[in-house]
Amino acid sequence: MDKINYNFIRVIISIVEHSNMSRAAEELEMLPGSISYAVNQLRKHFNDPLFIRDKNGVKPTSLAKQLYQHFKRAEESIERAFSLSPLQTESSNIKMHTIQLNELYLMKKLMDNDYFTGDNSLSFCAFTPSASKRLQQLRSWQIDLDIGLKLWEDPSIICIKLKDADFVYVAHKDSPVDLEAHARSVTHFKNSQANARVAWAQGWTQAEESLRLYIKNQSERNKEIFYRTESLANIFLLMSISDIAYAMPRYIYNYCSRFFSLKHADFPAFNVSRLATYAHYHVNNKNKNSINKIIEIFNREN
């Protein structure tokens, strides 16, 4: 290559992290042909195959692994530079990313444990289900602490398991819904979304639109209603005035049942390893007391 194409740096990083060129193309929003072109140009430049195909995708050569380490550090340095501002100073405000269920669970516990003393403050940022965006936010210091599903391994991000996947099916205590029977009818996470009356909040459907769908189908009492929402207010309001049910992690149910009149049944269909809860933060924040305190309080028994 006569001229360096800096876009090729992200191609190397993404292929190594995913072990798959197609997934790299999806993350980078590039055509597969463009990924292949970049790899071929890099192979010519370095006189090395860089990636070897196997049954699970591709494996990096020794040189590709070395390039990844150099390029990854360079990418993080660039992202940090773009996140700087003229007034940037050391702050005790923690910027956090998590789903609203965890926000509800965590906030009361933080207040009960006197977290907000001195200069400590906490900001919950807009939720995104995209793993690549969550990682980017952590690398570029837009987010200090991410609590949610496990992200891809990254040398700059510390990942700590907080809770195993242990879900329950929840409704108002006076609801006629047979939670145990319905939970038994869902045998696998893949078909749970087709059967569950309310899915775990994912954040990509507007609550207002889902509420209209719910109202429209109220006359069809035997028809299952599929409802996704970001709004905890809608969930708990609907559970209090209807027979709607909701799947949530047991640790959140145990906490919420202290304040709401609820009943539950075990929901093993959701108890898959990829739905466990993890904390993620940048390796440079490993000694930050406020982050460690939040994680410690989150993990305390109710």
UniProtKB/TrEMBL annotation:
Signal peptide feature range: none
Record key words, sorted: DNA-binding, Transcription, Transcription regulation
Pfam families on file: HTH_1 (PF00126)
An example Gene Ontology molecular-function term: DNA-binding transcription factor activity
Top-level taxon of origin: Bacteria
InterPro entries xref list: LysR-type_TF, LysR_HTH_N, WH-like_DNA-bd_sf, WH_DNA-bd_sf
Transcription regulation among keywords: yes
HTH lysR-type domain sequence ranges: 4-61
Family membership: Belongs to the LysR transcriptional regulatory family.
Name of this protein: Putative HTH-type transcriptional regulator YbdO
Species this chain originates from: Phytobacter massiliensis
Gene: ybdO_2
